[in-house]
Design a protein that fits this description.
By secondary structure, the chain is an alpha/beta fold. About 25% of the residues lie in helices and about 30% in strands. The strands form three sheets. It has a five-stranded mixed beta sheet. The relative contact order is 0.18.
C-alpha cells in the first residue's frame, strides 16, 4: 500500500498523487480525472467479490478491460493512477503509542507487532501504511491501514494488466474523507457500499472515528444495521464533543434521499458529499456518487 488518507500534511502529499483515480466497485469500475471528467465501466455480477481471505477477482481479464475502459474515458496524462479499494478489504485503526521510531521500517515493525491481535489475517505478509496524526513528548497517535498482501496484489495486477500503474492505494472510505478538506469543524460522515457502511468523525486534520460495518444481504436486516451504525456514530460524536451532530456527510451507492430514509433521524440532515456523475457512459448506468474518486484527487494540481 503506497499511501493512506492523512489529516496531516506529512508523508505522501496530495499534490504528489497521480492526476487520475480508479475505484473498484462490486459491479463496476469508476474513474476520474482532473478536468473534472468521469469514466465508468460495468462489470458482470460476481466478477468482483471483496474478501479478506478468498479470491476477489474471478475474471481478471474482464476487470482489467473495465479498468482500461473507465480510465481511457478520462484520458489520464500519466500511467500512474490512484487505486481505490473496497472498504471491506482494508482495516483502519487510530493507534496510540508513547513514541514511534522515526525510521519507516522500524515503525512498521512496531505497528505489525501491535496489529497481530487486531486483525484476522496474516499480518506478517500484509501491506501496512501509516500516517502520524499527532505527536508530543508523551503521545503519538498513528492512523494505520492494513490489508492482506495477496489481496492487494490481485487488484494491483489488474491495474497493470490494463496498462496503468497503481501509484497510490486508498480505501474507499479514506478517499472519501480527502474530499472533506481541512475544515476546523467536526464532521460526521458515512460511506455506503452494497456490503459495508463506514462511519467517520474528523476535525480538521485529525480523525476521531473510523468504523466499518459488514452489512447483511437481507434488506430488513441491512436497514436495521444502517440505522444502528449511524446511531452509534452520532452517539460517539455527542459523547466525545459534547454536542449533537446536525449533519451527516454522505457518499454511497444510493441517492442521499434514500439514505436519509434509512437513517430515519429527522434531526440529522444528510448532505451528499459529491455530485453524481452524469456525463458519458454514466448517463446509461445507475448513477454513482463520485466522492471517492473526487476525494482521491483533492489537492492534486
Amino acid at each position: 500500500m503506497k499511501s493512506i488518507f492523512s489529516r496531516t500534511k506529512s508523508g505522501f502529499q496530495p499534490a504528489g498523487r497521480p492526476p487520475a483515480a480508479v475505484e473498484m466497485l462490486a459491479a463496476a469500475v469508476s474513474a476520474a480525472g482532473l478536468q473534472p471528467v468521469y469514466g465508468f465501466a460495468p462489470l458482470s455480477a460476481g466478477v468482483i467479490t471483496p474478501s479478506l481471505s478468498e479470491t476477489n477477482l474471478h475474471d481478471p481479464a474482464a476487470v482489467a478491460s473495465a479498468i482500461r475502459s473507465a480510465l481511457d474515458q478520462v484520458s489520464p496524462r500519466s500511467r500512474a493512477v490512484t487505486l481505490i479499494i473496497p472498504d471491506p478489504l482494508v482495516r483502519v485503526f487510530v493507534l496510540d503509542f508513547d513514541s514511534l521510531p522515526a525510521k519507516s521500517a522500524e515503525a512498521t515493525a512496531v505497528l505489525r507487532f501491535r496489529l497481530r491481535k487486531m486483525v484476522s489475517f496474516d499480518v506478517e505478509h500484509a501491506a501496512i501504511s501509516y500516517q502520524v496524526l499527532e505527536q508530543s513528548e508523551t503521545l503519538c497517535r498513528v492512523l494505520t491501514a492494513v490489508m492482506p498482501g495477496p489481496v492487494l496484489a490481485e487488484y494491483e495486477s489488474a491495474v497493470r494488466a490494463a496498462g496503468y500503474e497503481p501509484g497510490v492505494v486508498l480505501s474507499s472510505g479514506l478517499a472519501m474523507l480527502e474530499g472533506l478538506g481541512d475544515s476546523t469543524e467536526a464532521v460526521l460522515a458515512a460511506n455506503l457500499s452494497r456490503s459495508t457502511l463506514t462511519t467517520t468523525i474528523s476535525i480538521g486534520r485529525d480523525l476521531l472515528l473510523y468504523r466499518t460495518l459488514d452489512l447483511p444481504e437481507d434488506p430488513l436486516q441491512r436497514f436495521t444495521e444502517i440505522q444502528r451504525g449511524i446511531a452509534v456514530a452520532a452517539a460517539y460524536y455527542e459523547d466525545r464533543l459534547q454536542a449533537r451532530p446536525l449533519a451527516l456527510h454522505y457518499a454511497g451507492s444510493e441517492p442521499a434521499s434514500e439514505f436519509a430514509w434509512d437513517v430515519a433521524n429527522p434531526g440529522l440532515a444528510v448532505v451528499e458529499l459529491s455530485r453524481r456523475a452524469k456525463n458519458g457512459s454514466h448517463a446509461k448506468a445507475v448513477s454513482r456518487c463520485t466522492a471517492a474518486v473526487a476525494g482521491a484527487l483533492a489537492g492534486v494540481q
